[in-house]
Amino acid sequence: MKKLAVLIPTYNSAQYLKESIDSILNQTYSNFDLYIYDDCSTDNSKEIIENYSDRRVFYERNNKNLGISKTLNKGLDKLLPNYEFVARMDADDWAFPERFEKQISYLEANKSIMLCGTQGFWLKKIYENPLSGWEYPITNNYLKLYLLFAASFGHSSIVLRSDFFSSNNLRYDENIKTCEDWNLWIRVSKNGEVSNLPDFLMKYRIVHTSNHRAEKNKNIHLRERAIIISNYWKTFSIDLSPEQVFEYYYSSDENIKHHFQSKLKIIIDSFNKLFLNYGKDLKKEDRLKFQYLLARKVSDFWKRSNITAYNPVIWFIILTKVKFIGKFRLIKSQVT
Question: Full-prediction pTM beyond 0.85?
């Protein structure tokens, strides 16, 4: 069995494709094959790919436009039986040269980890080199909880262990239009350990026409998120409907104000139960971060209701009902 396959799906990304491919071919770790799956692009993607003479580059073109999930599953079906690891990469992103070297080394030293991502920068201009960026959690226990609120992995950054995916029949859900990655990471985390490296090894290009950012998909994206998150809450024996999740997480219309006090008590109670039952499994640093994350989610819900920040009844509910964080840090989280 070969060591590593890199899977890049592409659709009309010719203007970015060469930068993405070059960043992979210039890795310090060279023991891989690169498979580019073209989902019937109408630009000059094929010409760009076939211009490479590197024997590690393989070009596959779909007979018809399948969409991202079906294209990725087609790639996994071919690659999982033949490679120990499969790495993901998007056609508009860029990987630092040490990415594969660090991820493969980590996975070989940590056999219990079934999926490994990295930190990365989200940029409108890919040539920028920021000094810092948004950081995803690193440890398995925190990631399992963080997935209730965010996708938690940069899709282009992950490397997965093939035999685990094969034995658990893990693939992208082809019925999901915009959150296929988030749904898959949740299913992976239910069956095995996951991790992110602390290293910033990716640059993600912010493209407003990308799948989940496209204007026509924004509402679909949030609704799909709500369904995925609602189902995942059940894993922790907490029942929040997709409608509740959508309202608590994303909605900003006037309906939030209706029965707001009751809704606020429900979300606080859910956070209390979650932290009481699972917070003890977190490392101290992760526990502190998670407490603050939950407190900020309460604050965000309050702000989106457009109810004044000086409402004494709301303050009373928050100060008396919240149990997952101390009073001083709670107050600070609500006013900053």
Answer: yes
